[in-house]
Amino acid sequence: MIEQMQLLELFQQKMAPIIYNKALDDAKKWFGQMMENMDSDYYVLYKNEKMI
Predict the structure, then answer these.
(1) Which of 44, 41, 22 shows the shortest CA–CA distance to 33?
(2) How far apart are CA 39 and CA 31, in angstroms?
(3) Tens digits of residue pLDDT in 15-35
(4) C-alpha dist (Å) from residue 33 to 13, 42, 44
(5) How many angstroms separate the CA atoms of 18 and 21, rounded?
(6) Mean pLDDT of all residues belonging to the chain
(7) N or C terminus: fewer CB in 10 A for the chain?
(8) Which of 12, 10, 29 is nearest to 20 (CA)?
(9) What separation in angstroms does the CA of 51 have from each of 6, 32, 48?
(10) Cα separation, 15 vs 2, whole angstroms
(11) For residue 20, what are the CA distances in angstroms to 23, 38, 42?
(12) In sequence order, which residues have a C-beta less than 8 Å from that of residue 3 and are 6 or more positions away?
């Protein structure tokens, strides 16, 4: 049981920062895509400026 706990702790110490950083990178990528969509969606709201 102690060896399993030590193995789990070792895994957490070594892998946790890698997994955490990957999650941050994924969140940044997702947020960037949402900002690009927001920019294009913003211009879709513009009204046609034709003069009658």
Answers:
(1) 41
(2) 12
(3) 999 999 999 999 999 999 999
(4) 31, 14, 17
(5) 5
(6) 88
(7) C
(8) 12
(9) 75, 37, 9
(10) 20
(11) 5, 27, 33
(12) none
**pLDDT tens-digit profile of 1-12?**
778 888 889 888
Q: How sure is the predictor about 40, in pLDDT bands with cuts at 50, 70 and 90?
A: confident
Which position has the token pair 């049981």?
Answer: 1
| Residue entry with tokens 């003069």 | 51
pLDDT given at position 52: 60
**In this structure, what DSSP letter does residue 45 have?**
T
Copy the structure tokens of residue 46. Answer: 């513009």
